[in-house]
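Bench notes, afternoon.
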Amino acid sequence: MIEIKHLSKTYNADDAARAHQALVDIDLTIDDGDVFGIIGESGAGKSTLVRCINLLERPTSGRVIIDGQDVTDLSGKQLLELRARIGMIFQNFSLFQQRSVLRNVTFPLELAGTSKAEREKRAHELLELVGLGDYANSYPVQLSGGQQQRVAIARALANRPSIMLCDEATSALDTMTTHQILELLRSINEELGVTIVLITHSMAVADAICNRVAVIDGGRIVEEGETSEVFAHPQAQMTRALLGIEGQVTA
C-alpha cells in the first residue's frame, strides 16, 4: 500500500520571488494490486507527484508511506533499496543507446551486484515476458518505439519490484502500440501482482487500464474514486473538461 499524507512540493521555496508550489496538501491511498491513474493536464503536478513516491523529488512537507514504512526521509543505502522495490518507466524510454537490449535490462542487476549468469538469466526471462526474446543482441536504435518501451518495462521489472511507476509511458506511441503496451501492463499487474501508478493526460488510457483514478489540477487532487464512477459522474470541472463534457455536474 502507498499512503501519501498532506504532501506538498514547492520549488525554490527559499526564494519568494521564484517559488512555485507544484503540489498542495495531497492525500492519496493506493492499494496493493491497484492500477491507479493520476490524470491531469500538462503542468498540473502529476509527474512531480509520482516522482515524490520514489523520492526522485523530495517533498517540501508531508509523508510518503509504503507498506507501513515512512520512506520520506530515507537516504543512502536505504534509499537505493527503496528504489529497487519501485520500477519506473518514462515517456522517452531512457534506454542506454550504446548498450544492447540485454545489457539495458541487466543494468539494475549490475548495480545490485548480481552475478553475470544470474542477471543474464533474469534478463532473458523478462525479454520473453515482454515479447522480445529474439532481440537480446539488438540495440535501441534498431527497435520501434513500442519495442523500446517493452525493453524499458523489462528493465523496470529486473529487481522484482512490487510497484511500477509509469510517467506518460504511452504518450509517444501510436494508438495500436499504446493498446499493446497497456495490455502488457495489465498482464504484469494481474500475473505478477505489481501495483501500477500510471501518470497520463489521456482519459482513454486511464479508462482502458485503471481501476481507480485521481484527477489533479493546479497541484491539488480535485476528484478521486473508481474509474467507472468518476468517468460516469464527474464532479470536478477539470474532470468534465478532460472528458469533453460541458455544463453542470452530473447527479
